[in-house]
Design goal:
alpha+beta; about 120 residues; 3-stranded mixed sheet; 6 helices; two-stranded antiparallel sheet; 5 strands
């Protein structure tokens, strides 16, 4: 999928991440708004000539659909990511959990901890 189409999907869905899936709808990576800026625009590459694969973050960190929200928050924190694709028991992408989702469900302690951990300088 060309990058402009991915960006349009983000606008249409009012989101900052699009999962990239294989032919069986299993996640292989994600493209974030930040990926587009850092891996295309900031490097002087023409985003109109790039595809999702050219900019995606991989490997794709995922969580199972039956994972508790607390454990999901741990995954966000441990990987310093703001969103994580959710997979069903077949490994197929069935959704995304974001910091905003956690905040909207009034899980104040969890969102404060996630924000603190995700916002730390990158671990080397």
């Amino acid at each position: 999928t060309n990058l402009q189409e991915v960006a349009q999907m983000m606008m249409d869905a009012d989101c900052g991440e699009i999962p990239i899936v294989d032919g069986e709808n299993k996640p292989v990576g994600v493209v974030t708004d930040r990926d587009i800026v850092c891996r295309a625009v900031a490097q002087g590459r023409n985003p109109l000539k790039l595809t999702a694969t050219d900019c995606m973050s991989e490997p794709c960190i995922t969580v199972p659909s039956d994972m508790s929200i607390e454990d999901c928050c741990d995954v966000l924190e441990d990987n310093q990511i703001r969103r994580v694709p959710v997979i069903d028991d077949r490994g197929v992408c069935c959704g995304i959990v974001s910091q905003a989702d956690i905040a909207r469900h009034h899980l104040k302690d969890e969102i404060v901890e996630v924000l603190e951990e995700v916002s730390q300088p990158q671990k080397v």
